[in-house]
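Morning. Coffee machine broken again, so started the prediction first thing and wrote up yesterday's gels while waiting. Chain of 376 residues, entered below exactly as on the submission form.
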Amino acid sequence: MIVYPREWSRRQNSAFASIASAAGGGRRLAFIGLSLRSFPETRARAAEAMARAKRQPKGRIGRALKSALIAAQYTWARRYFARHPGDVAMCWNGLTGSRRAFMQGALDAGARRLFVELAPLPGRITLDPLGVNAESSVPQGRAFYDDWSAGDPARSGEGWREAGAGLTARASRRADVGQGSAEGLGAAPFLFVPLQVPDDSQMRLFAGWAGSLDGFVAALGEAARALPEGWHLRVKEHPSAKVSLAPQLAAATMASGGRIVTDNATDSFAQVAASRGVVTINSSMGLQAFFHDKPVIATGRAFWAQPGLVTVADSAEALRAAFAGAGALAFDAGFRARFMAWLDREYYLRVTETPEGDWQLDPAAVCRVLATAPRP
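Came back before lunch.
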């Protein structure tokens, strides 16, 4: 049986129901239960989940209450899966806060797990037994993909590009961030920097040496001075970010000597297409830039931030060096083809959307993933 907490999105819940049906049945929890009978590990597990929580309470009382809630959720999940050793824990994302506690409780009870998340490819979803984003089961290193593709030319070909059909820029929730015409981009060479949502899990957990989006923007201001003559950075804020980064971008522009241009109006993929490369912490647009054959610089942790696929800038000095050599940025096209073919054929599951707006997954594909889910 698949056991999973209810989400607020109809599509997410329908995807859960489809996965559970394929696996032979499921139990949807209206909420994660609570148990006050703690384990020796409860305090440490709660502290870890609390540190990853997206919304951090203000004040000691608020922190104490949320810590107690997460601890009780961890303890309940661990006791539940210990009593039901054949059940599988599933949740959306599962990296932070209460969901982290739920999945960690299942892990410590010896249960199998499934992590679900949107995929950066249209019509696909992530279903992973280990985690999502930088904590996913996606293999690291070229050797795996070379072995996987050996003897099958189609696995090193261009078929993966079809997975990007229909890839469009995210609709904006902000009046000052749009997806407009590319007429004003001009001919000057630039690197495109799509910013991310400041407080999402990608920033909280995998931002790397920059530490945060603010730290990344400040680093851009310093490193941009190393760009070749006539080059600039073209930066766009995330269309779903609730808070504008205009003050931070103004400071970075000044630090760069005017070599940063903020363009919140032009379509994001039009800027990718016109750029000489993409710079990101770990945005999905870094992976999506592969469809435009653009070199990518990644400063944070991501499953696709592998040498050869992208330029990994693991320090401020490395970022500055990458900018200084902007005209020579490159990537291994063969590695990218095999990597993307594996994602397309083996990793991401296709989603069918019903006329009612529900998401349905192929039962055979779900069962294949479930069969790989390890027991702790």
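The mean pLDDT is 95. Going to sketch it on the whiteboard this afternoon.
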